[in-house]
Write a structure and sequence with these properties.
Keywords: Membrane, Transmembrane, Transmembrane helix. With about 160 residues, the chain is mostly helical. It folds into two domains: about 70 residues; about 70 residues. The protein has seven helices and no strands. The longest helix is centred in the N-terminal third of the chain and has 35 residues. About 5% of the residues are buried.
Length: about 160
Amino acid sequence: MVKNTAFRSWYYFRMGWSTYFAFVFAAVNTLTVTYFLAIENYPILKEVFPTFAIYIIILAGIGIPLLTFIGYVHFKRTPSYRSESAINYESNPFGRRLFLNSEFILEINQKLITLLLKMQKGEKIDDETLEQMQKTQVEISKHVENRTIFGKEDLDLIKKLQENE
């Protein structure tokens, strides 16, 4: 794995900024601006939220559960997160490699189990089964010989697998 300290540092900086600093800064900014520009200028709202502290407590009491529910729906109830995950796998060469290797391992294991069961029953391994095993071996060997971690061979195979679903 190639390590580029500058790009890794840039990535860590962006994650720290967007996940922690920008989130907190945006929340504080939104609460401050909405209270001092909107609530203070409307007497009816000022009666509901007499102080900035009460405003924060009420909004946090409503906002945190509401946003937690929205996050849950995003991850569990809509196709949006599945789409994000698919895009991440397609664009991440290491993720693609792991996915394809697991697909190869499953295919090999299925065929090995079939062979073991036939051997356990005392059945002779027929030519068709041997041909399938050899075909699988050739396909995997061909793919492994031609692929590189940043090449498009893995992505092409993933697209081919998706078309066969």
